[in-house]
Design goal:
With about 270 residues, the chain is an alpha/beta fold. Helices cover about 50% and strands about 15% of the residues. Bound molecules: NADP nicotinamide-adenine-dinucleotide phosphate. NADP nicotinamide-adenine-dinucleotide phosphate binds next to α1 and α7.
Amino acid sequence: MPLPEPRPDHTALVTGASSGIGVDLARDLAGRGHNLVLVARREDRLTAIAAELAAQHGVRADVLACDLADPAARDALPARVADLGLTVSILVNNAGFGTVGEFGTVPMDRETGMVRLNCEAVVALTGAWAPKMRERRSGAVLVVASSAGFQPIPGQATYAASKAFALAFSEGLHAELRPHGVSVTALCPGPVQTEFAEVAGAEELFANAPGFSMVSPEEVARQAIAGLDAGKRVVVPGAAIKVATLGGRYTPRALLLPLMRRFYPV
Ligand SMILES: NC(=O)c1ccc[n+]([C@@H]2O[C@H](COP(=O)([O-])OP(=O)(O)OC[C@H]3O[C@@H](n4cnc5c(N)ncnc54)[C@H](OP(=O)(O)O)[C@@H]3O)[C@@H](O)[C@H]2O)c1
């Protein structure tokens, strides 16, 4: 099921487009001729990225600064997009963050805020636009989950659970919406060099990750949008991470959890 054709009054809305994977997802979509609505909190960054992508690719790129963990701000987004005279034909739920540390050692508002962003906002934004795509029998939704979503992770218990939620939500919707002409794809990257580790307060997080397990944000975005265009259910970029996710999915928890507890870098 291919991506919808670009149209002057249609747009791809990309959350978390002020840094990391989101920038490259937006860049890839602009390269295919899609207008953009870029959403995150740091408006200055979004404005600079929008100007760059509009100039490079000749698309319209609008900026809507929004804290997606704030339900009132988030609920106002659909009207703000409508005020721009745009229809969302592609939704990229990318904004998210992680925490690192044993449960109870990370401030609880970070943990609950993460669930609001990684889970609640994904449902709310998808709820705002996917039913309209279904009515039009055209559209695409990308949900950025994580390889962390394939198994519980001691030391990142809330993050892994939030991404398991995102993955299961996306897979369920994939089956529901496919017969109605809407593709839904879950993107599950392994370690990617972005601001993620710094935001998680654990700059050492990927320090011991073997080089072959790292995939660049550009390559992650390329595989994600190609997978969305091909109607894939799940995209896991990189051979090493594909193998690791098989372990996460199929190793009995009784064996996996003690191993992860011992070797995971937390
Ligand atoms: N990097 C990895 O290793 C990795 C691996 C697997 C999955 N992922 C997932 O990939 C996605 C993108 O992460 P990244 O690696 O690109 O990290 P990043 O560089 O830190 O980017 C995160 C993006 O989310 C936005 N964001 C954070 N809180 C927000 C909020 N409350 N409201 C609106 N936007 C918010 C940030 O923008 P502002 O700060 O400007 O709001 C930023 O644009 C996340 O869902 C992450 O869980 C990352």
